[in-house]
Amino acid sequence: MNLTAIIIVAIIATTIIKLTKSGEKSSGKNAELKNALGEQEREIADLKARIQTLEAIVTDEGYDLKKKFKDLEDDKVA
Questions:
Q1: 44-68: string of b/e by CB count within 10 Å (b at 16+)?
Q2: Fewer CB within a 10 Å sphere, N or C end of the chain?
Q3: Which alpha helices (DSSP H) does 1-78 contain, by range?
Q4: How far apart are CA 62 and CA 18, in angstroms?
């Protein structure tokens, strides 16, 4: 083999190694991003459940009536 062929093979081998290592790094980042996404999706689901509970409380007729009584009491005190 001549010197030019050896240099070309070395450059190609180095490039392949660098591409392989960068692929391994990105797959690790993908796993981290997937975990973070899963955590955020769980948090959103929890928050939606809390919102539904609060909406049920606020739209309850008894809650509205109690609020009106409290407002009347506050008006008497003032």
A1: eeeeeeeeeeeeeeeeeeeeeeeee
A2: C
A3: 3-59, 61-77
A4: 67
- Note the pLDDT of residue 28: 74
63: CB partners within 8 A, 6+ apart: 57
Residue 52 has pLDDT above 70, yes or no: yes
Enter the tokens of residue 49: 């459940």
Query: Which amino acid, 76?
Result: K
Question: Which one-letter DSSP state was computed for residue 2?
Answer: -
Phi, psi of 43 (to 5 degrees): -65, -40
Please tell me the predicted confidence (pLDDT) of residue 1: 60
Domain range list for the chain:
3-77
